[in-house]
Amino acid sequence: MSATRPLHLAAEIGGPPRYDAGSHVALARLAEEGTLDYVTLSDSFNRPGPDALAVLARVAPATTRIGLVPTVTTTHTEPFHVSSAVATLDWVSKGRAGWQADVSTTEAEARLFGRRRAAPGAALWQEAGEVADAGARLWDSWEDDAEIRDVATGRFIDRDKLHYIDFEGSTFSVRGPAIVPRPPQGRPVTVIDGTSGPAQETAARHADVVHVRATSPEQAASFREDLRRSAAAHGRDPDGLRVLVTLTVDLGDAEKTPEPGLESGPPLAGRGTYFRGGPVDLADLIARWHRGGAVDGFHLTPITPERDLERIVNGTVALLQHRSLFRTFYPGGTLREHLGLGRPANRYALARTSGESS
């Protein structure tokens, strides 16, 4: 594996529940100053506060380059509405949207909807993959030049360039076409935490970016190779997959030596592995893992967002930039360009063109 591939960095800007987007705007702007690829905003049905998609739609006009990736739960939600909301975020942000697909596993969350009981993880992640598949088809259901906007003739849309997707999943069906034109990125970036078995299979099939939790570069490299191998088995180009290690970071004591290993940490570390130390120590860890070819980058969750994200940007990132290990400017305007991912061709336009040429 080449150690010269670009390093990708992202950060979570959630923290304690809030009912005002002001702090999220400030954190996203700070991350943008550090040229991070994207920020995430975690969410679930049992979390108080406004919907993550709505919050990042508010953040979008207050930023210019940073990618915006809210958590979107695919359980108990309507895939058509999910795809419409994510496409709208891509339009509002001018091509900087992604979405992190997640599932809802608890009976308490199921009772909020009253539509069905909680299901096993494998079934939920199968459904999440179907939602991702249906979403991609809905985003493609408008060809890029479907809008005519011809005032003289009164024609707004070329109906021949709108497509019914007729998708049948295990728990839902979607006909389409979408009610939102094809997003600026073609398809917004799909992110999945692929650490667990069922989620890893869905990630290999559908994700552009996979978050994994690993306590050593060897474990991270094994995850990455497994994901790339599985993606190839599903007919995907493994070079179109980015694998980032999720790390909860506590930079509260810049002079303290980090604890040995990453597996030990307080309950506040949540589902991620845990790092405690200074910005220089974190930069050294990131550089060592990336140079060894173990990962494509890191998704960092500050344990105290306002304090730790500032130290990540002005300490860790600044040092990586000084060492020429991380970029100092954005390579383009869209999240796909930040990640080095191409804009997907429209499947229906390709099929129509192929039919015309055959």
Report on the architecture of this protein.
This protein has 358 residues and is α/β, with parallel strands linked by helices. Helix content is 38%, strand content 17%. It is built from 11 helices and 13 strands. An 8-stranded parallel beta barrel has the order 1-2-3-4-9-10-11-13, surrounded by 8 helices. Helix 2 links the parallel strand 2 and strand 3. The longest helix is centred in the middle third of the chain and has 20 residues. The two termini are 40 Å apart.
Class inferred from helices and paired strands:
alpha/beta
Tell me the distance between the termini. 40 Å
What order do the helices and strands follow? EHEHEHEHHEEEEEHEHEEHEHHH
Number of helices: 11
Largest sheet: 8 strands, parallel, barrel
Query: What is the β-strand count?
Result: 13
Write the layout of secondary structure elements.
Blueprint: E1 8-12, H1 22-33, E2 38-41, H2 52-59, E3 67-73, H3 79-92, E4 98-102, H4 107-113, H5 121-140, E5 147-150, E6 155-157, E7 167-168, E8 173-174, E9 189-193, H6 197-206, E10 209-212, H7 217-233, E11 242-250, E12 273-276, H8 279-291, E13 297-302, H9 305-322, H10 335-339, H11 347-357
Parallel strand pairs: 1-2, 1-13, 2-3, 3-4, 4-9, 9-10, 10-11, 11-12, 11-13
Antiparallel strand pairs: 5-6, 7-8
Helix pairs in contact: 1-2, 1-9, 3-5, 5-6, 6-7, 8-9
